[in-house]
Amino acid sequence: MISVLRLGHRLGRDDRISTHCGLVSRALGASEIIYSGDKDDKLIEGLKSVTKRWGGPFKITYEKNWRKIIKKYKKKHFVIVHLTMYGLSVNKEIKKLRRKKNLLIIIGSEKVPGEVYQLADYNIAVTSQPHSEVAALAVFLHEYFCGKNKKFKKAKIRIMPQARGKKVVESSRK
Ligand SMILES: C[S@@+](CC[C@H](N)C(=O)[O-])C[C@H]1O[C@@H](n2cnc3c(N)ncnc32)[C@H](O)[C@@H]1O
Hints:
With 174 residues, the chain is an alpha/beta fold.
């Protein structure tokens, strides 16, 4: 099971990027995202509504105390992976990480507290260049799952891939 912990969400400033963290987590195979920082009911409701329409399972929650989450997941024997440009290369570490079944992936926003680097079992970089939590998360999940797509359940809407044009199938299930 892959869980994502998004640190330091800021109301107003991070609406779009935090939504994208959730969308990428869901689409690329994580089972849940936990938001920390400012509480944002609109963000959570928006992602719940996407999951209702496009399928799951995918859980979205908020927890003010991110330390509590890291400790809780350590107790459950999850491996804690912090994505940071200062870490070891994902290219070198991914084989080892694929053998771990339960991961808590931490992504930051503006300033990540130093303690996170110590609490993590692995600090992993997707290139040693600054970019974005959305990109880092997408690449990491794609690498972890070897590009294999998750099968979504209870979807009300599905895309039928087309070479050109759009084909969307809606389920009659309520
Ligand atoms: C915009 S960055 C800001 C990071 C901030 N300067 C700090 O204190 O680390 C936001 C987040 O994107 C992710 N990120 C950015 N570049 C990355 C990279 N090259 N590899 C892995 N993660 C990265 C990290 O999770 C980081 O916390």
